[in-house]
Design brief:
The complex is a heterodimer of chains A (78) and B (287).
Chain A lengths: L1 E5 L9 E7 L6 E2 L4 E6 L4 E5 L4 E6 L6 E3 L3 E6 L1
Antiparallel strand pairs in A: 1-8, 2-4, 2-7, 3-6, 4-5, 6-8
Chain B lengths: L8 E4 L1 H13 L3 E2 H4 L5 H6 L4 E4 L25 H12 L3 E6 L10 H14 L4 E5 L7 H9 L4 E3 L9 H4 L5 H14 L4 E8 L5 H12 L5 E6 L16 H13 L4 E4 L9 H12 L1
Parallel strand pairs in B: 3-4, 4-5, 5-6, 6-7, 7-8, 8-9
Antiparallel strand pairs in B: 2-3
Helix pairs in contact in B: 4-5, 5-6, 6-8
The chains are: A mainly beta (78), B alpha/beta (287).
C-alpha cells in the first residue's frame, strides 16, 4: 500500500520549511525510528525519524525546496 | 540566514513529541521546550523529559533573544502546582526542572507559586529532585527567600550574556541584579546548589566571556551551562556567529579551572538539558 510522507508541523506557527536532504533513496527500506530526511527550521536542522517501517518511493520534493506544512514530499510503500 | 553547521542537527520523532504535548495540553500545562522552540525538544520528549514553564505562556518582559511571547499575563492557576507534580509522577521523572515566565505584574514575581510547585512535587514524588529556573524576581530578597524555603535541590537563574549586551538585548534586566540573585541564594541557603547559564554567538568578545565567568564564580555558583545562541526568528537579535564545538570545549576547561563544580558547554546545551546529570556530577564534586 502506498502512503505519503508529508511536511510535518514542528511548532504551531510553522508554515513551511526547507527540505535540506533525503537520507534514503527511492527503493531503500527503512525501519521505524530511523532518520529519513532533514528539514531546516529557524534554529536547527531536524532529522525526521520514520513513524513506521517502510520503503522510500517516489520523491516529490527536491533537496533545497521550501515546502508548505502538510504538503506531500514523498511516496512510501509499507 | 547563515548556513547551519553540521553540529546543529537534531533528531525529531513526531510521535514522541505529540504524546508529551497531548499530556501537557490535557492538564493545561506549558513547557519552555515548546514555547521557546527548543532545539532539543525532539530528543527530550522522546526520553519523556520536559521542562515545565509555570505561571502562563505570556512573559511580561521582551528580551530580544527569547522566543517566549511577551504579553499581558493572566491570573495564576491555583491547580498548576499539583498538575505539574501529577505529570512529573506520570512521566516518572527523577529530576524535575520548573521554570517560569517573568511576572513583573505580581508583587512577589510568582515566588509563592513557584514554592508551592516545589512542595507539591516533593510531596507527590518522594525522592524526586527539583530544579527551579527563576526570573530575577525584580531583585527582591524576600521573594527569593520564599522560593528557597521550599528547598529545591537546585536554584537556577540565567545570567544569559556578557554585561555589555544587556542594554540592547535584555533592557528590562540588570547584570548586577542577576548576579545578586545567585549570591543571595548562596547567602540565604548555602546547602542549595546554584546554577546559571549564558549564551555565545551574540557578539561578545573572549575577554568579556572570561570576566563574565569570574563574576559568576564570585557569587559561589556551582553549576554553569554555556550554549550557542540560536536566533528564533528574523525579528530577534541577529546571530553574530556559530561557535565551534572546540571553542565550547576550551571554555569548559577555563570554567572548570575557575572552580565550578560542573560545567556543560556545547552548542546545543540548554540550561535544563540533561539537568539530572549536572546535579549528580555537582553533588559528587561537592562530596
Amino acid at each position: 500500500m502506498k502512503n505519503e510522507l508529508k511536511m510535518p508541523k514542528l511548532r504551531p506557527e510553522m508554515e513551511s520549511a526547507v527540505l535540506c536532504a533525503w537520507l534514503k533513496e527511492p527503493g531503500q527500506a527503512f525501519r521505524k525510528g530511523e532518520p529519513i530526511y532533514e528539514i531546516e527550521t529557524e534554529k536547527v536542522v531536524n532529522q525526521i525519524e520514520a513513524s513506521e517501517d517502510g520503503v522510500m518511493g517516489r520523491q516529490l520534493a527536491e533537496e533545497g525546496d521550501e515546502v508548505a506544512v502538510g504538503a506531500a514530499i514523498a511516496e512510501v510503500e509499507e | 540566514m547563515q548556513k547551519k553547521p553540521e553540529w546543529l542537527k537534531v533528531p525529531y520523532n513526531k510521535q514522541a513529541v505529540d504524546e508529551v504535548a497531548a499530556l501537557m495540553k490535557d492538564l493545561k500545562l506549558n513547557t519552555v521546550c515548546k514555547e521557546a522552540n527548543c532545539p532539543n525538544l525532539g530528543e527530550c520528549y522522546q526520553k519523556h523529559t520536559a521542562t515545565f514553564m509555570i505561571m502562563g505562556s505570556q512573559c511580561t518582559r521582551n528580551c530580544r533573544f527569547c522566543n517566549v511571547t511577551c504579553g499581558k499575563a493572566g491570573p495564576l492557576d491555583p491547580e498548576e502546582p499539583l498538575h505539574v507534580a501529577e505529570v512529573a509522577q506520570k512521566l516518572g521523572l527523577r529530576h524535575v526542572v520548573v521554570t517560569q515566565v517573568t511576572r513583573d505584574d505580581l508583587p512577589d514575581g510568582g515566588a509563592a507559586h513557584m514554592a508551592a510547585t516545589v512542595r507539591s512535587i516533593h510531596s507527590l514524588c518522594p525522592g524526586t529532585t527539583v530544579e527551579v529556573l527563576i526570573s530575577d524576581l525584580k531583585g527582591s530578597e524576600e521573594a527569593l527567600q520564599t522560593v528557597l524555603a521550599a528547598k529545591p535541590e537546585v536554584m537556577n537563574h540565567n545570567v544569559e550574556m556578557v554585561e555589555r549586551l544587556y542594554p540592547d538585548i535584555r533592557p528590562q534586566a540588570k547584570y548586577a541584579r542577576s548576579l545578586k540573585v545567585l549570591s543571595d541564594s548562596k547567602r540565604f541557603a548555602p546547602e542549595i546548589l546554584t546554577k546559571t547559564g549564558f549564551m555565545l554567538g551574540l557578539g561578545e568578545r573572549d575577554d568579556e566571556v572570561d570576566k563574565l565567568m569570574d563574576d559568576i564564580r564570585a557569587t559561589g555558583c556551582d553549576i554553569l551551562t554555556i550554549s550557542q545562541y540560536l536566533q528564533p526568528t528574523k525579528e530577534h537579535w541577529p546571530l553574530d556567529r556559530y561557535v565551534t564545538p572546540d571553542e565550547f570545549a576550551r571554555w569548559k576547561e577555563t570554567a572548570m579551572a575557575k572552580g565550578f563544580r560542573f560545567v556543560a558547554s556545547s552548542p546545543l546545551v540548554r540550561s535544563s538539558y540533561r539537568a539530572a546529570e549536572a546535579l549528580d556530577a555537582a553533588m559528587e564534586n561537592r562530596a
